[in-house]
């Protein structure tokens, strides 16, 4: 794998994990307020 592909993979994985955490936080706050 070339350097650019590795950098893209790292970026997308980081972006996905941040989105997953945001979604989990939304679900948790929805459960707490319900």
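^ Assign residues to that structure.
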């Amino acid at each position: 794998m070339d350097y650019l592909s590795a950098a893209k993979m790292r970026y997308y994985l980081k972006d996905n994990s941040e989105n997953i955490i945001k979604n989990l936080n939304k679900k948790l706050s929805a459960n707490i307020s319900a």
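Residues 21 and 27 are 10 Å apart (CA to CA).
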